[in-house]
Amino acid sequence: MIEDDYDKTIIPLPNVTIKILAKFIEYCKHHLEVPKVEDKTAKEDLKTFDVEFVKVDQSTLFNLMLVWIFLNIYVYIN
């Protein structure tokens, strides 16, 4: 549930660099913009994006996972 003053709320993200936060936001935007209909092309594009997205160094992937865990966001990959 989101309160009326959500834009004034600060969510601390300790030890998160701007690079990691930008990559996290990129991932969220990409998944948000995917059509909700049963479009096989969109699903395949999303799978391709996910595969390419995780092709980063181990440190970056670890830090991304920490952001997901800290914000209590779960990613299910099919």
Write a compact overview of the structure shown.
The protein is an all-alpha fold. The protein has three helices and no strands. Pathway: Protein modification; protein ubiquitination.
Give a description of the structure:
The protein is an all-alpha fold and 78 residues long. Helices cover 54% and strands 0% of the residues. It is built from three helices and no strands. Helix 1 packs across helix 3. The radius of gyration is 14 Å and the shape is globular. The model has no long low-confidence stretch (mean pLDDT 79).
Low-confidence stretches: none
Q: What Rg is obtained from the alpha carbons, in whole angstroms?
A: 14 Å
| Biggest sheet character | none
Number of strands: 0
**Order of H and E elements:** HHH
Distance between the termini: 27 Å
Please, how many helices?
3
Alpha-beta classification: mainly alpha
Bin the helical content.
40-55%
- Sum up the overall morphology in one term: globular
Which range does the strand content fall in? under 5%
The residue-averaged pLDDT reads 79
